[in-house]
Amino acid sequence: MQQGTLMRKVKSKSWKKQRYFKLQEDCMTIWYQSKRTGKTESAFSISDVETVREGHQSEVLQSVAEEFPPERCFTIVFYGRRGNLDLIAGSAEEAQCWVQGLRQLIEPRSFPLTFALVSCTWIRDWFQKADKNKDGRMNFKEVQRLLKMMNVDMNEDHALRLFQDADKSESGTLEGEEFVLFYKALTQREEVLSLFQEFSEDGKKLTLLELVDFLRQEQLEDEGTEELAMELIDKYEPSETARARHVLSADGFLMYLCSPEGSIFNPQHRALWQDMSQPLCHYFISSSHNTYLIEDQIRGQSSIEGYIRALKRGCRCLEVDCWDGPNGEPMVYHGHTFTSKIPFREVVSTLGKYAFKVRHPSPGAGGCGWSSVGEETCAEGSWLCWPPTVQDPRGQGPWRCWIAQGASLSPTPQELKHKILLKGKKIGRLEDTLDGPGDEAPDVSDDDNGAEAEEEKRRAKVKGTQHGSVLQKDKETLAQALSDCVIYCKNVPFRGFQEARSHSRPSEISSLSEAKARKLIRDEGNEFVRHNAWQLTRIYPSGMRTDSSNYSPQEMWNVGCQIVALNFQTAGMEMDLCDGLFSQNGCCGYVLKPPFMRDEETLFNPSDPSSREGSGPITLTIQVISGQQLPKVANSKEGAIIDPLVRVEIYGVPADQAHQETKYIENNGFNPHWDETLQFQLHVPELALIRFVVEDYDKTSRNDFVGQFTLAFANIKPGYRHIHLLSKDGTSIPPSSLFVHIRITE
Questions:
Q1: For the chain, which domains are there?
Q2: Tens digit of pLDDT for each residue in 689-734?
Q3: Active site residues
Q4: Nearest to residue 282, comparing CAs of 271, 270, 274?
């Protein structure tokens, strides 16, 4: 890759500044500086880069498409909610040099990162940060500075002893392998070594049988244990000699515990492991609210990035609010507000690129609010679903949802793979479409947009006029064309559970505000669960959440609501729960509900745990042992060291809601030891989510967030496990982790 390349950094059509971009010698850091002032503006790590897009694949670069050809343009996309970096190179060759170089640097990084790769990167990164005079060596003063940077408050005599032991050349400095020795001594895991020696007869290695004993007794691996032990030795033992003898060294044991197989998250549940042949209403479905917004609800920016980010996180239900634009071109934005606008065609194009890039291409749903004039354009899209009896004049598209005559009105995710369902208002019922055109006026969704309801009433009135104007007839035709695209997700108003049982169909869906849903949960919890066993329900945030804040999705999941729409752009506990639930099952965005929530005659009520069929409550015991290389709090003072504590939070039915925390460890974010045991009783474990939170204790103000990890109880692996922490944005922060011991008893 070229270094010190002059490129244009673009923020808008009118903001294009020339900057020098350079890859540092460590091949891990890129900085850029102003051409005019020579001042370094910013730097970022290769580990922060998620992907690189070529050409005009951002709104900013699309706005300058006439001025700069796509061969010179590319976009650097970062993990989390950090904004993209749009660049224009001086030539197509320079652009390719950067694009291919960046891809090669980020390609080897798989998730979770291997322990060896993380350690190598971590050592190199810290060495270069602490080597103040850049001479490739570190004296003791620089080592002391390094310890502060690494969140370690170590006794000076102990630090000097480690330094001298590593200084094999007795030069008074550490370089190369000497620093690696110092780092290994610094990161010695006494708690892991003690566990290793407990099962090792000679204290130096685990034989195959000793490893099998550990896996069975502590990790509760009871199937194919010998084969698993052999796999772990082959995969994680660094010594070729030890591998040949089928033994595991202490280093190999630590690498196993830090690997996906040693994670608290069951690795088998990362893949698609649930039955995908149940009706759609039997699944929780990852869903977003006003997906196009990446900021607040009133003046925020609308962007296709909102769709890309949501889809990459496994979201399967997106929201598209379409309004009239210039020349009848539909625009997407939050109506009656000051949010920016994006063309509907750009949204559709984005869906085409990203809708099915998740590991399991489960069906997606688009919830659309429509204005009037642009409906014909919207209905022309080849991405839309088409009813079974209508001959599609545009040819067969890969995303259309065709229904065979006599097909079920409750299709399954398996049947709908690679399909997009349109959720919206419809003239008549699905059965009417199968039999022929219907003449029923469209129902009105119980949504928070009053303008939509008024528009639908106006349309219904137009349809009832036999001698209307040509314009009225055109609008009637357009509404019918769009209606024909709505198949399995027809919006209907909610008028009570009894009314729904009598008059609604499985192919229909109602939308409820969070406040209305809470009232139904409180007053008719069991009826709500039964309703969601046969029909879809969507929950959306209160209109008062103009800051794009979120409500807790857990209380909605407790009654089986499938489409619980959240503002994906806002980090916090609510999105942690969403990510935690949907990080399983291949991240496909569908999670099968427990059996007692799929029965239309169920007696389950979340306010009464005893109504759950099955065994009694279980006890979850968590021994929080230690933490490793915890990050510093953002914007903390130089030299500040965190005082970490761990809080374990349980989210589930009201009887299971709980939290407990450890004491805080003063001035040690590098290798804190708690050795505290927390215990919880779960009455409905099938609905429970466990959130591990690390905070920096502050006695005078609110604790600062350090990291978290959330997962469903069903995905927990018992035994000695590592928890690899995530940032507030939900991105990995290697090598930060917790080491815990998990026990589950009835």
A1: 5-106 (2.30.29.30), 115-187 (1.10.238.10), 190-262 (1.10.238.10), 618-745 (2.60.40.150)
A2: 999 999 999 989 999 999 999 999 999 999 999 999 999 989 888 8
A3: 289, 334
A4: 274
